[in-house]
Write a structure and sequence with these properties.
The complex is a heterodimer of chains A (about 190) and B (about 120). Chain A is an all-alpha fold and about 190 residues long. Chain A folds into 2 domains: about 90 residues, Rna Polymerase Sigma Factor, Chain: A (Orthogonal Bundle), CATH 1.10.1740; about 80 residues, Winged helix-like DNA-binding domain superfamily/Winged helix DNA-binding domain (Arc Repressor Mutant, subunit A, Orthogonal Bundle), CATH 1.10.10. Chain A contains 10 helices and no strands. Classes of the chains: A mainly alpha (about 190), B mainly alpha (about 120).
């Protein structure tokens, strides 16, 4: 099966096809979309190229078996969870404890965010919400979104570490969304 | 300040080629921003990019991806062939069972017919 032919199909559509005819090749097309990302996730945790490759193979086998057993609504987030758990188990077997911060995919509420962006007064609310962020988050958000600086450039400008820059942008973005939603709700009341 | 609105959008789905260009430092400014913007939203992409940057040789990384994709294709094809074979086997048993029942019916009929003619 040539995967390019199915480029237009969403992940969920591929999964639906699999659930209707149980043809594993649909899963093959779906999983192949994430080979590179899965290899990256495994490499991040395991820090070993060969071991990461083997881990991705095992994740594929696990995904094929598990997806046949029950329905999954968000395959991308599900695959990430499977990969991360697999790596953490491997690390536990090695007696290596890793502090992993809990982070969630924000893929699901994306449509809400788009709706929010379309509202006319959102820009004004965003500007005032930006002032309410803490100085670190505010400077990183401005450098990234308004001045279009890369992560690396922000590291050099601010002197923060790459991890800090990422965290300030992620948290700043999340806080801005929350602040804008609150302000909109207040305006509506 | 209109760029501020991009904070609320996560952007389009990224292609593997765009991610590879980003890893090689060859992505355009637009692509670079799109990827880093999604990294702020997606822990999956963020972890993946961090891990992929840990590969010493990008060619080896690409080779691994190819190998994994080939194995995946083989695996999904084998599983399908097995499933088909199992289905065929099940169908064969069904045909044999039907033929057996038909044979028994005919034998029974002939037996009854034979006895009724004899008496």
């Amino acid at each position: 099966m040539h995967t390019d032919r199915y480029e237009h199909m969403e992940d969920n559509e591929l999964l639906e096809r699999f659930y209707s005819d149980r043809d594993n090749q649909w899963l093959g097309i779906l999983l192949q979309r994430y080979t590179l990302l899965l290899l990256g996730v495994c490499m991040k945790y395991l820090k070993n190229e060969e071991e990461s490759k083997d881990a991705v193979q095992q994740i594929f086998l696990k995904a094929i078996t598990e997806l046949a057993k029950y329905r999954v609504t968000y395959p991308k987030s599900w695959l990430y969870m499977v990969a991360r758990n697999h790596c953490l188990m491997k690390l536990r077997d090695r007696n290596q404890v890793l502090s992993v911060e809990e982070r969630f995919e924000l893929a699901a509420p994306e449509s809400d965010a788009k709706e929010l962006a379309d509202k006319e007064n959102t820009l004004n609310l965003l500007e005032s919400a930006l002032e309410e962020l803490n100085p670190e988050q505010k400077s990183c958000v401005i450098l990234f979104y308004l001045q279009k600086k890369s992560y690396q450039e922000i590291v050099s400008i601010t002197g923060y570490s790459l991890l800090q820059v990422k965290s300030y942008i992620q948290n700043g973005k999340r806080n801005l969304k929350i602040l804008v939603e609150k302000k909109q709700q207040r305006n509506n009341d | 300040m209109t760029d501020l609105k991009e904070i609320l959008n996560s952007g389009e789905e990224l292609s593997q080629e765009a991610i590879e260009r980003y890893l090689q430092g060859k992505a355009s400014e637009e692509e670079r921003f799109a990827i880093e913007n999604q990294m702020a939203d997606s822990a999956f992409l963020d972890d993946a990019v961090e891990g992929l940057q840990g590969f010493k040789d990008p060619a080896k990384r690409d080779d691994y991806v190819e190998q994994l994709n080939r194995q995946l294709q083989k695996y999904t094809a084998i599983r399908l062939a097995r499933k088909k074979r199992r289905k065929l086997k099940e169908q064969n048993w069904l045909v044999i069972a039907i033929l057996g029942i038909l044979l028994l019916c005919v034998a029974g009929y002939l037996l009854i017919h034979f006895y009724s003619v004899k008496h």
